[in-house]
Amino acid sequence: MGAARTRTGGRRAVPWVVLGLWLAALVLVGPFAGKFGDVQQNRSVDYLPDSADSTQVARIQDELPGGQATDLVLVYHRDGGLTAADRQKAGAQVAEVGAKYRLTGTPKAVPSRDGATLMYPVSSTEPGQDDKARDAFVDGVRDIANGGAGLSAEVGGPGGLNTDMSKVFGSIDGTLLYATLGVVTALLILIYRSPFLWLVPLACAGVAAGMAMAAAYGLHEGFGVTITGQSGGVMTVLVLGAGTDYALLLISRYREELRRHERPYDAMRAALKGCGPAVLASSGTVAAGLLCLLAADLNSSSGMGPVGMVGVLAALVAMLTLLPALLVLLGRRVFWPMIPAFGSTPKARRSLFAAMGSSATRRPAAVLTLGAVLLGALALGVLSLPGTLKQEDSFTEKPESISATQTLAHAFPGRSSQPITVIAPTAKAGAVLDKARTTEGVAQAAPGRSGSGWTEISVFATAAPESPGETRTIEALRGGLDDTYGTYVGGPSAQQLDLADSQTRDREVVVPLVLAAVFVILVGLLRSLVAPLMLLVAVVAVWGAALGIGGLVFGPVLGFGGTDSGLGLLSFVFLVALGVDYGIFLMHRMREESLAGAEPQTAALTALRTTGGVIASAGVVLAATFAVLTTLPLVGLVELGFVIAVGVLLDTFLVRTYLVTTASVLLGRKVWWPGRLSRAPEPVRSERQPEPV
Fold it and tell me: What does 613-630 look like in DSSP terms, one character per residue?
């Protein structure tokens, strides 16, 4: 009896110890979590690979006298033509800018042919590489440049665009966190129908988000991992979405075990033993898939891998340690008013998923064929995806820099307002300048700063920024100024070209790695080769169908002018890694039932009946959290959130419920080939007590 009391006391102490360790960890890492937003890098060049020409241009520009230059374009426009007073006002305002800030040269007016627009290129090295100083400089110029009475005054150019982008990303963290928390809260209240229970997983998810931010900050400081506004936003969604999914699965199993065990501690041990392997494998597939992004050449993609991974792992650790401790300490009363009493049986009711599974297994071949045809038909929508997204189309709400760019494109159709930057060795700068001026598609070329053995040359194309004509000019410059000159060709438009090229290369490298990594984890969990292949084929089909739906919506419905070049790769990684999660939950339970002696069809239906509700709840939560991205003002994040949300819903309600179930029924024991379950005609020893049906 003394030994029993000692064991009982030890069990009671475990949750308190876990809770104490978490409180200590929060005290230690809390200050670092607050620095997460300070290390985000959102310049276009921060997304580029180290080897790209445009990256080298940006780095060399930082070393030139004055450091990195902030280039702006002040645009004055009046419909019907500028008046003498307008020109005088514009000149006075530009002079005021020159008096207030240290500029690299005296801005000169460039009038349009129709006399309705006046352009003043302005450049300053005063802000340097400090993003906050750059934003302050741009805002200060915008305060000075003002129109009125029919005269518009806008500040654009690369510096204005970077500031507008920075402001958008700066507002994302708080907006995204609170919006996601609100969505998750509403869904948990609906799922649990309890005034208390929803608070527990939500609090754990919030703690996990703080831990993830601190860990990501540590990755940046310790290993130089690039953190962008995009990766930070996706990490927040992953922590809350995936963490809530793990909580739903654990709490569902814990509720079952409370009816079989008198003590909550014993019930939680049984719940962790039952669903722990599935949760570990689920988080493992997501973490492995994200880590494959380290092979990407693009800095933003390779940085998103470890940043997303620490988010998933933080959610996993919180939901397998902090959540169980809190639930055990709170006892059965946390489920009020539907408290699962010891020895009771759940109220008999017809399960929606049991009914769906039964209907699917009556004609499994027909259901499987129809579902595959439907996914294939939806995937054809990929052919309707708009072309590559331009910078001017990257905002859902047009900022001032984009408006200025569009005004200039209309006013100067024969000359780009955005320079192509050529960096040449100073000894060869004269020859490079002559070569650039004679390159087809070049309207003007002029030398700029020199220092550290390099000279900056600004080249203006005859075609509009990011147009096919300007692309040909950039390619002609890179081809004409070959290795004998030792030059680099960069600038905003060149950066977009390098981004697209890197994305193409990354898809060819990362996609096979993700498939291989997820396959290995599934084989280890399911002890089969057929079941993992079936799940991978299913999630790839879902990815294609979700992209196809995006093609039918982005242009015709939402009016987007292009598709983000990273959409294909990132949506693939997330949908494959996250989509396999629900397959793991279903197939792991199916394997448990098969080990308990159930026939293949019975095992499939029992697994669907017992996990269908929690998978549906988890799918809705995950889809809703990614759907929050569609409320942000960046087209790339809207497209990513839409495709992942649609894909998760397809996976949850079509693929898991019908296609995986019917395929498992048709394959029978072969689904477990070459494992022992595929060869056992008679029931084998159960690894657990089967749940009463």
Answer: HHHHHHHHHHHHHHHGGG
